[in-house]
Every structure is written in C-alpha cells, then in structure tokens.
Amino acid sequence: MSLSKFYQGKVVLITGASMGIGKELAKQVLAHGGKVAITARNESRLNAVIEEFNTYTENILVHAGDATDYSSNQKLVEKIIARFGKLDILINNAGMSCYGEVETLQPSVAEQVININIYGSLYPAMSAIPELKKSKGSILFVSSIAGFHGIPGYSTYSLSKMALTGLSQSMRTELKSSNIYVGISYVGFTENEEDKKTLSPNGQLEKVPPRPKRLTATRETTARLLLHQIMHRKHSASHSFLGSFTNVLSRYAPALLSYFLSRNYHKQQSAR
Predict the structure, then answer these.
(1) pLDDT by residue (tens digit) across 69-91?
(2) At what angle do helices 254-271 and 241-252 cross, to 10 degrees?
(3) Is 134 annotated in the active site?
C-alpha cells in the first residue's frame, strides 16, 4: 500500500510540530491527503507553519499548548473532534535534548527534560486513547538512539528516552484488545534547522552542534520512515546504521558498547 492511499483522509495529531521532524511530518501527511493537528508551545512558529502550508489551510488545525499540560492535551483532542470528527494517529514527537553529567546538571534542567520527553508523550497519549479506540488508530513514540543505552554526558536525555521504551511496551499490551497500534522509533541523527537549540547543564539554550554528515539523515527521509512504520504497524524501528549498530550491541554485546561509549566520552573530555 502506498503512503498516499494509507494517509488519505486520516487525521493525524503531531506534537512538537512547529519545526524540524514534526513540521516535516505534517507536510508529508498533508501531501498524502491527510489532515493534521499540529501543536507546540511557540505560537509564532506555528503561525509561520500555517503560512508556509497555506494551500492546505482547510486540513490543518493549530493548537498552541504545552504537551506536558494534561488539560491542554484534553482541550486539543476536543478541538480535533469538533473540527475533523475523529482522530486516527498520534505521533509523540515533542522533545528536548540536553547535555551534561549528572554532577553538573541544575535540577531545573533535569526536570524540564524529563517533563517534556516523558510527560510530553504520556499526557497526549492518555488524552488521545479514547478517540483512538473508536478509530482503531495508532500511537507512535519518537525516541532516539540514546534510548538503547545510557550515553555518558547525556544522562538525563538518555533516561527520558529509555523511559519511552517501557511506556510503549506496556501500552502495546494494554491496548492490544482495542486494536490500537503502539510503536516506538529510535531516530538517528537528523539534520536540524539553524535555530535548533539544546539545553546546557545550567539551563542555557545553545545551538545544537553539527553532526557528521555521513551519519545524518535529512528531515524528509526521517519523516518518511516514521510514516512507513505507522503504516506497517511495526512495533519498533531504528532508522539509521548507527542506531541499528547501537541496538545490536546493547542487546548482544553491552560490555563492548560500554567500551566504545567510554572511549568516546573520555576522548571528548580530553578535547575540552
């Protein structure tokens, strides 16, 4: 089945959709004949998305809200039903990255990352499940290769992304009888927009450092793979060589993976 045939007429809720992968997901769903509800905290960026996608205005619902606010998620689902009459797919894409050892992190930074990456996925799912039961729909959690194994220097980020694995596994069993698909995607390095930010240990927003181009996928490629995963109802997927390599080592040779990560970590420490 083609993506256009599958997504035609589908109503898709995408969190963290004002930029990056979320924005690209919305663009592709619309191009395939679907309808999207996009949400993020930055209202001005959401308005810019509407202007950019002006040929699809009738098929877009915008909600400026915080994915970590349960009541905001409930209001959003109500708006979706009032506008489109149903909800078929939830893509939990909202997230925040940070770096820093546990010893150096400000508590407020840890709380912010955990809130966004965990509650920002849990609360949208909790709010959407009643409608997804009616449509026998889908939930996809967007995780990271940091969800396979704890990465030194990115402790809180790894913690939050690994938590999504347990959440998705539990929900998959809980919702099986309702015919709701629950999947998780371990996304690898994906190209960022120029103003993409990450949190420093003291809470400052800093530009995400460049990644090796040979290991970086385009946003278009990553979004397309996520949409294919939902269509094929695949429980989990890693969309990069680095992610697949990390997954295999974490399962079958964790000591070797720890060695590689430790060596890379100490090399970075020496370079500071």
Answers:
(1) 999 999 999 999 999 999 999 99
(2) 120
(3) no
